[in-house]
Amino acid sequence: MTKADIVDRIATGTGLTKVETEAVLQGFISTVIEALLEGDRVELRGFGSFRVQQRAPRTTLNPRTGEPIAVEMRYVPAFRPSKDFREKVDEAAKKRGG
């Protein structure tokens, strides 16, 4: 599903125009990104939370040459779904057969 598909579904369900819906969706995305850049955590009850997670430094292999490569410590955005969300996805996947 693309951003355009999400805009279509929300616009159809709310009665807003696609332009209004896209503006709201873009505002939401921008707000989440800004909050993470400021070090805040974004929690949406019943959906999940976005946060910044630290990845430890590690050594990996270059798949082409097999040479070891050092990967430095870094920070990445992470999403953790709520318990209800995880359960709903699990049930739906089981019904679909995977």
Please, could you describe this protein's structure?
The chain contains three helices and five strands, in the order ααβββββα. It has a three-stranded antiparallel beta sheet. The two termini are 18 Å apart. Helix content is 47%, strand content 28%. By secondary structure, it is α+β, with helices and mostly antiparallel strands. The chain has one domain (3-87): IHF-like DNA-binding proteins (HU Protein, Chain A, Irregular), CATH 4.10.520.10. Helix 1 packs across helix 2 (18-37).
Feature tags:
98 residues; alpha+beta; HU Protein, Chain A; 3-stranded antiparallel beta sheet; two-stranded antiparallel sheet; 47% helix
Order of helices and strands: HHEEEEEH
Low-pLDDT stretches are none
How much helicity do the residues have? 40-55%
Largest sheet: number of strands, sense, barrel closure: 3 strands, antiparallel
Walk across the major sheet and give the strand order: 1-2-5
| Shape category | extended
Broad CATH class: Few Secondary Structures
CATH architecture: Irregular
Proportion of residues in β-strands: 25-35%
Oligomeric state of the chains in view: single chain
Query: Number of helical segments?
Result: 3
Q: What class would the helix/strand composition place it in?
A: alpha+beta
Structural Rg: 19 Å
CATH homologous superfamily identity:
IHF-like DNA-binding proteins
**N- to C-terminal distance:** 18 Å
Question: What is the residue-mean pLDDT, rounded to a whole number?
Answer: 96
Number of domains: 1
- Tell me the total number of β-strands: 5
| CATH topology assignment | HU Protein, Chain A
